[in-house]
Predict the structure.
Amino acid sequence: MKTRLLLAGALMLTATAATAQTLRIGLVDDPDLLDPAPGKSFVGRIVFQSLCDKLVDISPDLKIVPRLAMSWETTEDGKVITFKLREGVTFHDGEKFDAAAVKYNIERDKTMPESIRKAELASVDSVDVVDPLTVRFNLKKADASLLATLSDRAGMMVAPEAAKQAGAKFGLNPVCSGPYKFVDRVQQDHITLARNPNYWNAKAFSFDKIVYRTIPDSTARLASLRSGDLDIAERVEPTDVKEIEAQKELKVVSVTSLGYQGLTVNVANGPASKVPVGQDKRVRQALSLAIDRQGVMDAVFDGQFTPAGQAVPPVSPYYSDKFPPSQRDVTKAKALLKAAGVEHPVINVIYTSSSRIQRVAEVLQAMAGEAGIELKLISTEFATQIQEQTDGTFETSLIGWSGRPDPDGNIYSFYICGGGLNDGHYCNKDVDAILNDTRITTDVAARRALYEKFDAVALDELPIIYLYFEKYIWGMTAKLQGFIAVPDGMIRLDGVKLAQ
Amino acid sequence: MTLALERQESIEAHAAPKRRGAFGKLLANKAALFGLFIVLTCLFCAVFASWIMPYDPIKPNYALIRKPASALHWLGTDELGRDILSRMILGARTSLSAGFVSAGIAVCLGSFFGVLAGYMGGTVDLIISRVADALLATPFLIVAIVLATFLGPSLVNAMIAIGLAAAPIFTRLARSQVLDIKATDYVESARALGFKDLRIVTHHILPNIAAPLIVQATLTMAQAITAEASLSFLGLGEQPPVPSWGAMLNSAKSYLTQAPGMSLWPGIAIFLSVLGFNLVGDALRDALDPRQE
Amino acid sequence: MNAMLPYVVRRVLTALPTIAIFACFVFLLQKLLPGDPVLAMAGEDRDPATLAALRIQYHLDDPLPLQFMRWAADALRGNLGESLRNHDSVLHLIAQKLPVTLELALLSTLISVLIGVPAGILAAAKKGSLWDNLARGAALWGVSIPTFWFGIVLIILVSVNMHLLPASGYAPISEDPWQNIRTMILPAFVLGNAQAGILMRHTRSSMLEVLRQDYVRTARAKGLTELRVVLGHAFRNALAPLVTVTAVLLGQLLAGAVLTEQVFSIPGFGKMLVDAVFNRDYAVVQGVALCTGVGFILLNLLADIAQLVLNPRLRAS
């Protein structure tokens, strides 16, 4: 009752329609620039999902589904993809969406100085306008993950005229073609979107206004949900799930994420790699065997998260049953250490100071200690952690990856020699060959076999020790219906409504 | 964040020559005795932690996660199944070190420059005073965050940050005291006798300005304990698995509704130790103030 | 009044170098930080070639003195630069948050004055009594409770369990005054509570000082009621140092309410500042710190001048 009243009060001042409905979403971080080309943050992607429509999207089972592109065809050699575009779509400012707009957007992503989509779109050589509703991507070589890439920011279409005028400041007032358009924003506080009545599928969206609020503290975010000041709280703590489930007016929706959490080991990046854990795979194997992954899940996450043994989560069609998370075996771990000639290695672990990761680190430390491995925990903040990773001043780093729908996004740049995310400088020509093959192989079964070949090497040499898959857990009011959890962690609002 | 705030109060507590009855007065003050008792208890825990802790405060115990108080674990267990009482005892070491070391840094650094400014006067005074003012205007958390990220987050760096933030108050305080004393015949005659500057400072000035600095130091200690708690909220305090009261309170915050006991005890500990230091500080000031009968 | 002018001018002149030192200081301080802004912002999507190009574009590879000169020259012309993270102008960001921070600071200070001053007067007037001890205990409670924790406790009690006030959902006063005040009460109370203790201690000691003076004894001897002695004579004279303390408290709130802002999701300076440090968004750190630092120095200046007005004896010296 209180909430309704409050809501009504807030709306009287701003909304015109008497039946206007607002959805209030609590985000973990403050999104960065609201421009898909330079956009970097995960929470930014959540806002884009309602703001900027993209060529294709992914379904809960990671299939590519049409959005602005109705259909697509790939040539035999995989080097040309032709998209048929949706007709009658306009951007929020009335500009027409067509093949020329697609060409402009891809070129903007590839050339704008601030754009960080360049690496993702590296395989795209040029884009041709065939007719207003047909656009052709000419690739340098086949790229099996390109469609998945286009389901994210690289495939989001911004209004060309508005983008040309605003330049680098486009994100301050973004103009896209999504179901909601930008209204206003206060940094570190909120972003407001309003319904786009001209959206091609406007009927599916029942809210007139979406307000994204940044509430980093998990306790405060949950409290806001419980007090009725939020309708959806993003990434609820796993230890709060039971508490939410006990409340009649709240519910929990969750799905295992596309990303993973693990320990990245510095195997060849500078002098810091010249330690047993960097030089001897047996030490890494011992460390992996010393960890009771399910034990960590139970102790820190109330058993909500899933132990991981490979880079892709079980939901992916490329997940392999042949490589389950390794079971704890302290005896074997000690034997491996003995064989490696270091029975009591001391290993530095850097991690971002947050209570969640900190607890994981503390449990890992206790478990490794039982196998004779001393983990020295060094907490940093995120900016320093990535700096140390790229500089190679770390031994191991406890860090996660938010995940991409295609396995390539979780693996390629982390393992390929000289890869942009390969901070440990792992380099193995055989692995490179396999990974390059996965990129040009489009047949799912054949590609899967390649990834299993990759796993056999990578999970033996362990430059990354996989620990667990997180879950995206949304807490929401029980009145909210039709929310579909997709493993990419985005909030999709088509078909979502508040029951009266 | 409230480190700078006590300066006015201390400046008001003018320097007073030490009096013989000061210690006696302190002992006659019931509140002071209570404060002293708290401080000594905390000190005892901090020093003898290794002997009196009933359990290992570091090692997680997965079977005992977030259990309420029981006969075995008097204050219950925390989010990793560790005994809260043991962690509180070890936490006393962290929190008290935060108090002592930060205050120590602030006193040494602050009064060194304060005495220098007051004694030398002129350009030196001008520069030191301006820098102290600028430091005072710098948000404490910025100093703390920058130091913590630059040197890596740790208790030591948190203490340095807290100490640095509190130092300008001591600079101002010491400077004004020195100016007062320099004007007395006492220092003039020492100078006339041809004593060296260093000797004058250590033998004549320092003993006479010590009292207000000590009083301010006890207050700074109390504030440093809460400041450490605030820093650990941002992950910049003592690093796990070593506990501090502030860090315990921070992790307990996530389980406020599920396990309220987890926040209660470190909260009480912080309150009591701050109370203790403040009571002793108050009493010291009263005892050292000659104008009170 | 004329006698005061030279003092005020001198005081303003000494504030200028303080501001200059302060600006250098903040600049150097953040340049000490490891991690470069471009990498920090790119996070997961770091691509070495793009990052290198951006570094050149934003002059991040230039020598430090050059960077500082460039910033200072712009700042003197009233341009505080642009946020690297979101390309918004720093002046606009400050304009967006300044009212929020000011409102929170003023409200909290008001609350701390309302609690702290009467409690301090009571404690001083009845020194050594139960009231005195109660007030002193309560003051320490305020000082010793970390604001982040007290804030969460209040949210759970007042917002979640009693449904009296919202737990988040700040609205600007110009848009929705009712919602604004409802979201501001709790954080202002948390901050005010923390400061009331400090103010109470100052009031008490200042009052004790005054109550010992001869003219108070004279007033008592004249047969005035204790209430009139305390409030009419003593408090007026105890007021001057309290002004300074209140100014310092207010000044520190300009940048120091980070944790409270975070817990109550209030979009003020504190959160922006901490986020900017973590993101290595130099222009924002520098701009906001400059703004709060100057605010702090100005408040001190005002307080000093107010002291002079309130305390004629100081004017003589």
In short: Chain C is about 80% helix and 0% strand.
